[in-house]
């Protein structure tokens, strides 16, 4: 199945390069491009893409576009593609509805791989941002428990360990000999126990706690 995507970035040369990189394998079809937050929001309403891929620093602000598109439900998923490594930007993007935060230094093949996961509902934060974003989130929310993983069952822990390493639900299901829908159910329970707003936050919590212990 071809993944329908819109690309919003105010640098035409870079945007055209992204479009070419996405379409060259036939796995993606770019159904529209935009150069501002307002254009991106309008385009999403018209095209209803599987993914809205947004730059953070375009006119009007990428975060404004995330809010508008997420609130309208005009794209199935929202992903950020940006140069910003600021903790607050990552946290706000996830809070406002993005499920992926990708840095622009990524290769074309890696971008396609991440976005194929996004199209399946898989969250992603560029690995070098994970630990410091969790620290920022914890600072924002002082009610975060000191040991948030203590209430997980053994099976839930096994699943979260694999998710925190970047594995998709399908890959986790294969590794643990489970149905993919069972893994999705477990992730819903895990996010509830961790008070995580989304899959990314759950993975960040796991990465911080278990990474510190190893």
TrEMBL record:
Positions carrying 4-aspartylphosphate are 55
Which terms in the Gene Ontology molecular function aspect does this entry carry? DNA binding
Read off the PROSITE patterns from this record.
HTH_LUXR_2, RESPONSE_REGULATORY
Record carries keyword DNA-binding: yes
Organism of provenance: Loktanella salsilacus
DNA-binding as a keyword? yes
Q: Which InterPro entries match?
A: CheY-like_superfamily (IPR011006), NreC/VraR/RcsB-like_REC (IPR058245), Sig_transdc_resp-reg_C-effctor (IPR016032), Sig_transdc_resp-reg_receiver (IPR001789), Tscrpt_reg_LuxR_C (IPR000792), WalR-like (IPR039420)
Q: What is this protein called?
A: Two component transcriptional regulator, LuxR family
Q: Give the Pfam families listed for this entry.
A: GerE (PF00196), Response_reg (PF00072)
Q: List this protein's GO terms for biological process.
A: phosphorelay signal transduction system; regulation of DNA-templated transcription
Please state every residue range assigned to the domain named HTH luxR-type: 145-210
């Amino acid at each position: 199945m071809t993944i329908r995507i819109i690309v919003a970035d105010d640098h035409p040369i870079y945007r055209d390069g992204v479009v070419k990189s996405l379409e060259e394998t036939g796995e993606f079809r770019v159904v529209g491009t935009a150069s501002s937050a307002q254009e991106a929001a309008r385009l999403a309403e018209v095209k209803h893409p599987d993914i809205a891929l947004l730059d953070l620093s375009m006119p009007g602000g990428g975060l404004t576009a995330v809010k508008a598109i997420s609130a309208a439900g005009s794209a199935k998923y929202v992903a950020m593609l940006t140069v910003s490594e600021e903790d607050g930007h990552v946290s706000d993007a996830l809070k406002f509805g993005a499920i992926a935060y990708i840095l622009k230094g990524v290769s074309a093949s890696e971008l396609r791989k991440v976005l194929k996961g996004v199209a399946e509902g898989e969250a992603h934060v560029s690995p070098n941002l994970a630990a410091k974003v969790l620290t920022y989130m914890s600072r924002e929310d002082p009610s975060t428990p000191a040991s948030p993983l203590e209430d997980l069952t053994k099976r839930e822990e096994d699943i979260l360990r694999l998710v925190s390493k970047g594995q998709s639900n399908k890959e986790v299901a294969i590794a643990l000999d489970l149905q993919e829908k069972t893994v999705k159910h477990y992730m819903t329970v895990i996010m509830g126990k961790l008070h995580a707003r989304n899959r990314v936050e759950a993975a960040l919590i796991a990465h911080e706690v278990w990474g510190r212990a190893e």
